[in-house]
Design goal:
Elements: E1 10-13, E2 31-34, E3 41-43, H1 58-81, E4 85-90, E5 93-98, E6 105-112, E7 114-118, H2 124-134, E8 148-150, E9 153-156
Parallel strand pairs: 6-8, 7-9
Antiparallel strand pairs: 1-2, 2-3, 4-7, 5-6
Helix pairs in contact: 1-2
Protein name: OsmC family peroxiredoxin
Organism: Streptomyces klenkii
InterPro entries: KH_dom-like_a/b, OsmC/Ohr_fam, OsmC/Ohrsf, OsmC_Ohr_Peroxiredoxin
C-alpha cells in the first residue's frame, strides 16, 4: 500500500455583514484559513470579485504553493547534488484566464523567477539545471494541470 499524508484545514467565512448572502453585494468575501497550531491566514476573494485587497486570495495562495514547493525541492536537490545555496528568493507570477461566458476561470500558467545565490562559480550551471528537475518531484507541480515555467537567475556569493 502506498504511503499517504493528509492535510486538514478549515475555512471559516467571517463576511456576514448582517443579512448573509441576501444579494451578491450584501456580504463580504472575508474568511480565514485555519490549521491546528498555526496562525490564521486572513483571506478573501480577488479584488476583481469584490474581495479585500489587504487579504490573501485563493489564486495568490495557489501561486504561492507552486513557488514554495519548487523552492523546497530545489533546495533539497541542491543539498544532495553538491550545490551550496546561500540565498533564494522568488517572484512568482500566475495568470488566470476567464471563461468567455464570464462565469469562471482557471489558472493557465505560473512563471517562477527564482534569484539564487550559490557559494562558488563552479556551481552555477548545475544550480541552473536543477530547476528543470524539480517538476518531476514537486508535489504541487505534479498536481496541477497548467504549465509552470522557470526563469532562474543564478548569482555567485
Amino acid at each position: 500500500m502506498a504511503e499517504t499524508h493528509t492535510y486538514d484545514i478549515a475555512v471559516e467565512w467571517t463576511g456576514n455583514l448582517g443579512s448573509g448572502t441576501d444579494s451578491y453585494r450584501s456580504f463580504s468575501r472575508a474568511h480565514e484559513v485555519l490549521a491546528a497550531g498555526k496562525a490564521p491566514i486572513a483571506a478573501s476573494s480577488d479584488p476583481a470579485f469584490r474581495g479585500d485587497p489587504a487579504r490573501w486570495n485563493p489564486e495568490e495562495l495557489l501561486v504561492a504553493s507552486v513557488a514554495q514547493c519548487h523552492m523546497l525541492w530545489y533546495l533539497h536537490l541542491c543539498a544532495v547534488g553538491g550545490v551550496t545555496v546561500v540565498d533564494y528568493e522568488d517572484r512568482a507570477h500566475g495568470v488566470m484566464t476567464m471563461d468567455e461566458s464570464g462565469g469562471g476561470g482557471r489558472i493557465t500558467e505560473v512563471t517562477l523567477r527564482p534569484e539564487v545565490t550559490v557559494a562558488e562559480a563552479s556551481m552555477v550551471e548545475k544550480a541552473r539545471a536543477l530547476h528543470g528537475e524539480v517538476q518531476s518531484v514537486c508535489f504541487i507541480a505534479r498536481s496541477v494541470n497548467f504549465p509552470i515555467r522557470h526563469e532562474p537567475r543564478i548569482h555567485v556569493q
